[in-house]
Specification:
By secondary structure, this protein is α+β, with helices and mostly antiparallel strands. The protein folds into four domains: 88 residues, conserved putative lor/sdh protein from methanococcus maripaludis s2 fold; 105 residues, Beta Barrel (Elongation Factor Tu (Ef-tu), domain 3), CATH 2.40.30; 63 residues, RNA polymerase II/Efflux pump adaptor protein, barrel-sandwich hybrid domain (OB fold (Dihydrolipoamide Acetyltransferase, E2P)), CATH 2.40.50.100; 76 residues, Orthogonal Bundle (Helix Hairpins). 29% of the residues lie in helices and 32% in strands. The protein has six helices and 22 strands. Strands 2, 11, 12, 13, 14, 15, 19 and 20 form an eight-stranded antiparallel sheet that branches. Strands 1, 16, 17, 18, 21 and 22 form a six-stranded mixed sheet that branches. Helix 3 packs antiparallel against helix 4. The longest helix is centred in the middle third of the chain and has 36 residues.
Length: 417
């Protein structure tokens, strides 16, 4: 018989005699250890199942938002237009003759009286021309005097047939030529006087003068009149603006509603820094036609400017008072949200649930904005906390007064002895 081969894994483990007597073999020891930690595992599983069965935490309270009750009111009707200031008279002072600048007789940026000297040009060549023209005039007058004496001498001789009639006719013709020469010489003298006078440049108007455009020693007036300086009158000052057809028709409709003319509407000037010009203005010019290229109408308003604060070229806005618009609805501008070119507000109903509604806005009035369509009196609009609101979600609406009262700490009641 062949011997049977038994692998080491299947060979029976040798146990010692002491282990067999005490019953602590490796197998029994392993079983004892498993039975020792098994109750702990079961207890942990039971506790885990108990913890899953606890109640969920309570839901957070609804967000607090500030609301404003809507009510109809009499809102001021006004329209604002952007424009630019300009002077009624902007006079460019130019050199009328060709000459060198000798003197500058004014201070730049100051008020100049009418007729005050501004520039002195080199007048020596023009004085010489005047003297030459005066000499030519004297010669023409002397020749005319001779011709007239010739006529006086020849006239009686021609009557007696002592001289030919042709001699008298020639003398009479010479008198006419002499008179023409005198007139021509006088014209040359006047021209020379004018050119000489143009060398003294004076202020044509009373107003504010700007910076000089030439310096002493410059040659001016050669080829074309050279700009020397510019003067402007500042009181009153004009405001030019262009308005659209729609804005013009709207202003006319509002003026008719209040039984006023557009020229009678009070106009307020708002400067670039937000300040208000203290003096009210009025419309003094409305163009006869609409510009077909831009679709706008040119309008001019006039404002007093005694303090000379307003200067030509400044930008500003005018606010035209159109009276009062009754039964108007105003909401704070911060309560209006814009999304994809549309404007809307959040409203809170009687069930304290928020809902979104589209509105049509009008002109801003201070920190508020006029609502033309979408709201009615009695509704509540969300003013603060727009980021907390969701469609159909419940909110806790509080007015501004209630929020202030809630934020004010109450005084502690003193304990009784």
């Amino acid at each position: 018989m062949k011997p049977t081969l038994v692998s080491p894994a299947h060979q029976p483990m040798p146990f010692s005699k002491a282990a067999l007597i005490s019953g602590r073999t490796p197998i029994t020891e392993r079983c004892r250890r498993i039975s020792a930690w098994l109750p702990g595992v079961v207890s942990a599983a039971v506790l885990g199942l108990c913890s899953c069965s606890k109640e969920a935490p309570p839901a957070p309270p609804p967000p607090t938002v500030e609301v404003l009750g809507i009510s109809a009111t009499n809102a001021p009707a006004a329209v604002e237009i952007i424009g630019q200031l300009d002077s009624p008279q902007n006079v460019e002072i130019r050199a009328r003759v060709e000459a060198f600048v000798d003197k500058m007789l004014f201070t730049e940026g100051t008020e100049i009286e009418e007729g005050a000297p501004l520039f002195k040009l080199d007048d020596k060549p023009y004085k010489e021309r005047l003297l030459a023209a005066q000499g030519m005039l004297a010669e023409a007058k002397a020749a005319l005097e001779k011709y007239e004496k010739d006529v006086a001498r020849l006239t009686p001789l021609a009557a007696k047939k002592a001289i030919p009639q042709q001699d008298l006719d020639n003398a009479l013709a010479s008198v006419n030529v002499g008179k023409a020469s005198v007139l021509s010489a006088e014209a040359h003298v006047e021209s020379a006087v004018l050119d000489l006078g143009y060398c003294d440049v004076h202020a044509p108007i009373k107003g504010l003068i700007g910076a000089k455009q030439v310096s002493i020693g410059d040659l001016v007036g050669k080829g074309s009149p050279t700009l020397l300086a510019t003067m402007s009158t500042l009181d009153p000052i004009w405001f030019y603006c262009n308005i659209s057809e729609v804005a013009y028709l709207k202003a006319q409709a509002e003026a008719q509603r209040t039984h006023k003319q557009v020229a009678e509407l009070p106009v307020t000037l708002l400067l670039a820094n937000g300040a208000v010009h203290p003096d009210k203005g009025k419309f003094v010019f409305i163009d006869r036609a609409v510009d077909v290229k831009t679709g706008t109408l040119r309008i001019r308003a006039e404002f007093p400017n005694s303090a000379k604060l307003l200067r030509p070229g400044m930008f500003g806005r005018i606010s035209v008072d159109l009276g009062v618009r009754p039964e108007s609805i105003l909401v704070p501008e911060r309560s209006v949200a814009e999304l994809q070119g549309k404007t809307f507000v959040w409203l809170v109903g009687s069930d304290n649930k928020a809902t979104q509604r589209a509105v049509k806005l009008g002109d801003p009035i201070g920190s508020d904005v006029l609502v033309l369509e979408g709201l009615k009196p009695g509704e509540r609009v969300v003013v603060e906390g727009l980021q907390k609101v969701r469609e159909g979600a419940t909110v806790q609406p509080l007015t501004a007064g209630e929020l202030t009262a809630a934020a004010t700490p109450t005084e502690a009641t003193p304990a009784k002895e």
